[in-house]
Design a protein that fits this description.
mainly beta, 360 residues, four-stranded antiparallel sheet
Length: 360
């Protein structure tokens, strides 16, 4: 081959490579997905969060308790936990929805809503399943290793309570929150145990999230000293924590920031923002500045709220019927909200489990 021909081939290869790289940059962004589980509807449905188009309906057995759902933040794997007497765990491929793995275990928590059914760690590696033995009235946790598709044989050592609120970081940290106590239970060589803890003045924890690096753990709950809801920031580097009254962030009277009026709380994946829903009002708070980025009026109370994976929008689900819902997308910063209709085509009971994850 002549030198000129070699140079031409080299130039062509570089052009193809550059074109391929540009094509990846120009490729359309995959829309985030939402997954709905409506109690006693017998199905879990995956939707395109931007168009409302149903992508797949997966049969479930939810007669005794709502099907628990989660979407892996790393690869979009769909997780469904259902059945009653002998609990079933299934993992589905994000693109084809083919079944990757099915496991059975005992005593999943049977709730009508999604309160403390499971927690998928922010790195997508660990699935924590809440259990309850009705025979001996005991709560517990089972841990599933998502990477190796098997249950962890050992329990979490030195846990402060049997059914804590869990939070995790994409860097691998895992936290357990109990009344009056926060623990770092991050895994080491596949073993979970209390690595550090701090006493906090919270009698009830309603939401928690960690920064991606695990250096800060944020919790919202009610304080032992009374008043409205409190925001706790546990600094893992210093070991100390700070406490703020939500009333100071929302410019509301303290009497209006407690109790059950706040129906939903969600943190963005980077914990830079968190959303609070109270009745038909939605606030998006900047965590670093402790100021409200935006305040929106919703058309009706939200069933559930969460951020899209990139943190740029807040999704809120609305509706009282088990077959038709409204999904509202609210920008974190400037911009107009928009709404789409989500149809399940099958009526169920009103409780709904709601999960948001990356598109594929």
């Amino acid at each position: 081959m002549t030198r000129i021909a070699s140079c031409c081939l080299l130039m062509m290869a570089e052009m193809i490579s550059a074109g391929s790289a540009q094509a990846k940059l120009d490729a359309p962004r995959a829309a985030p997905r939402i997954v709905l589980s409506v109690f006693q509807s017998g199905q879990v449905i995956v939707f395109d969060a931007e168009t409302g188009r149903a992508l797949r309906a997966i049969p479930s057995r939810d007669g005794g308790g709502i099907s628990a759902i989660a979407i892996s933040p790393s690869d979009g794997t769909l997780i469904i936990v259902d059945e009653s007497l002998q609990s079933r765990l299934r993992l589905f491929d994000a693109k084809t929805f083919s079944l990757l793995k099915e496991e059975h275990f005992a005593n999943r928590v049977l709730n009508f809503n999604d309160h403390r059914l499971l927690h998928l760690s922010a790195d997508g590696n660990w699935l924590f399943l809440y259990t309850y033995s009705y025979a001996d009235d005991k709560s517990g946790l089972r841990i599933y290793d998502v990477r190796h598709l098997d249950f962890v044989s050992s329990a979490i050592r030195d846990l402060a309570c049997a059914a804590p609120v869990l939070a995790s970081a994409s860097g691998g940290s895992v936290f357990a929150l109990c009344p009056g106590n926060i623990q770092d239970i991050s895994p080491q060589s596949g073993e979970f145990a209390s690595r550090a803890s701090v006493a906090v003045p919270l009698t009830q924890v309603v939401a928690a999230a960690a920064t991606p690096d695990g250096h800060h753990l944020y919790a919202i709950g009610t304080s032992s000293s009374g008043g409205g809801w409190q925001l706790i920031d546990w600094d893992r580097d210093s070991g100390g924590f700070t406490q703020r009254d939500l009333a100071t962030l929302l410019t509301l009277p303290p009497s209006e920031t407690g109790g059950s009026d706040f129906t939903s709380i969600a943190f963005s994946s980077d914990t830079r923002s968190f959303a609070l829903v109270r009745g038909v009002e939605l606030w998006v708070i900047d965590r670093l500045t402790s100021k409200a980025n935006s305040h929106h009026k919703l058309p009706s109370p939200a069933i559930a709220t969460d951020f899209v994976p990139d943190g740029g929008n807040v999704l809120s689900l609305h509706g009282e019927q088990g077959s038709e819902f409204t999904l509202i997308t609210t920008p974190v910063g400037a911009g107009e909200s928009r709404s789409i209709t989500i149809r399940t085509e099958r009526h169920g009971a009103s409780p709904v489990s709601f999960a948001v994850g990356p598109g594929n």
